Amino acid sequence: MSDADYPEQGGEVDTLSPATLATRIRAGESVSILDVRDRDEYDAWHVDGPGVTSRQIPYVRFVQAEIKGSVADVVPDLPEPIVVVCGEGEASAYVAGLLATAGVEAANLAGGMGAWAELLVAVEVPTDWQATVRQYQRPSSGCLGYLVERDGEAAVVDPLRAFTERYVADAADLDAAISYAVDTHVHADHVSGVRTVADRTDAEVVLPAGAADRGLDFDATLVGDGETLTVGGASLRALGAPGHTHEMTAFVVGDAARNGGETGTAGGDVLLAGDSLFLRSVARPDLEDGVDGAPELAALLHRTLTERFAGLPDDVLVAPGHYDAATTAADSGAYAATLGDLQASVGALSMGSDRFVDHVLSAMPPRPNNHHRIIATNLGRERVDDGEAFEMELGPNNCAAAGVDAD
Predict the structure, then answer these.
(1) Which segments constitute the Rhodanese domain (predicted)?
(2) Distances from the Cα of 21 to the Cαs of 17, 35, 76, 216, 387, in angstroms?
(3) Which residues pair with residue 138 across a beta bridge?
(4) Coil, strand or helix at 341
(5) Same CATH topology for 3-116 and 120-392?
(6) Gap between the Cα atoms of 270 and 312, Å rounded
(7) 301 with 25: CB under 8 angstroms?
(8) According to the model, what pLDDT value does residue 406 have?
(9) Element (H, E) at 132
(10) What is the DSSP letter of 151?
């Protein structure tokens, strides 16, 4: 519908920006959401978070109630203030106005779910050495990416194509040149930005060596386990972490001099874990080889988490590739926790291999939207324009197994 298709708003409408809503959710505040889209749209994708209480009541119910003079009867049982949400912020503005007229404290989410999907929040990951490690949070999907900067050089890790200009601008603000655009694996939930960042900056595209076995169809530097990228005085050491996919590779980010060059790992480093270990769960193993190949990858994931990662210091800060709606950010605002804390809190990490495999395979949510096309695009085997790429990845990422920390 166009603006002209909506009735005149029923009262003065307060607005809330997506950035302000994201700040409140990240802080764990109580937030009431009234979503006036249709049920199928809501079920597929809606605003969520650790303090969010959400209700879905379609816009048409409020139109009918206004005609009957019974808007107050439709108001959901939600604590005020209420944030009203729709697809583009137009129907929700009308409903927010009706609620305001009925004496309900309500605000419209400016731009609706479209603007929510366009939001990227940057938060600094704390380190005890001189470097910038910036975490990029996409609240609409829970995707996390990173920029590592030191001494005027930078690397972006797991960038999203939709936000290429943001990474380029942020590096420029830091007076840094982007030397590397890195993917930890072939993503299935979002369209990668490594090639678009490289096109804008002449950065070197870097992928794990195993991406070639999956049919990679563009030029990239392939790194194997133990190889190191140098970014000014910082080092990014590749740590093979198979399980989500065969080629999944984490990167240990630290001070190159303190870490002894290419091979060292010190306390206080940051583990860019990609899709291996999250703050409440672990990765799902079925997006590369399907259900048939999932048991093998789940067993590999168990070895990654209990053997490979066990060799890292307990105070290494794990910065994952995703966060889920129930995750609360640290005091810094970043979604990150020490490896020692996660080993104590994520129940899957204390399971034996057989139990771990069974549990992960029983806890997989629906696959990400359009995952086959997204994988093909990220391998360079399918071409899509920016608009189609943005539409393909809308919705939750679903790259984690569900509930594996419950025991």
Answers:
(1) 27-125
(2) 6, 14, 20, 38, 25
(3) 143
(4) helix
(5) no
(6) 10
(7) no
(8) 38
(9) strand 132-138
(10) T
Q: What is the H or E stretch that residue 155 is in? A: strand 153-157
The confidence score (pLDDT) of residue 130 equals: 84
Which candidate, 152, 145, 146, places its Cα nearest to that of 130? 152
How far apart are alpha carbons 288 and 225 in whole angstroms?
A: 20
- How many angstroms separate the Cα of 400 from the Cα of each of 83, 117, 163, 328? 28, 20, 23, 16
Return the pLDDT at 102.
Answer: 87
What is the pTM (predicted TM-score) of this model?
0.93
Sequence-distant (6+) residues with CB within 8 A of 5 are none
The gap from C-alpha 400 to its chain's centroid, in whole angstroms, comes to: 11
What proportions of the chain, in percent to the nearest 5, are helix, strand and coil?
Answer: 35, 25, 45
> Torsion angle, CA of 133/137/143/146, rounded to 10 degrees?
-20
Predicted local distance difference test score (pLDDT) of residue 109: 98
The matching CATH number, chosen from 3.40.630.10, 3.60.15.10, 3.30.43.10, 3.40.50.2300, for 120-392 is 3.60.15.10
CATH entry 1.20.1560.10 includes domain 3-116: no
Kindly give the parts of the chain with pLDDT less than 70: 1-11, 258-267, 402-407
- Rounded Cα distance, 80 and 154, in Å: 44
CA distance 329 to 135: 12
- Check: CB of residue 283 under 8 Å from CB of residue 400: yes
CA dihedral angle for residue 186, residue 239, residue 205, residue 246, rounded to 10 degrees: -20
Report d(CA 349, CA 318) in Å as an integer. 14
Contact 288/185 with Cβ under 8 angstroms?
Answer: no
- Distance between CA atoms of 159 and 157, rounded to whole angstroms? 6
Residue in the block written with tokens 């829970």: 142
Single-letter amino acid code for the residue at 71: V
Residue extents of the structural domains in the chain:
3-116, 120-392
Of 266, 262, 255, 251, give the one whose Cα is nearest residue 129. Answer: 255
Note the pLDDT tens digit of each residue in 98-123: 999 888 999 999 999 999 999 999 99
Angular region, 16: left φ>0, alpha ψ -120 to 50, beta rest? beta
**What letter does residue 79 receive in the DSSP assignment?**
P
Secondary structure class of 159 (helix, strand, coil): coil
Residue 212: predicted pLDDT: 97
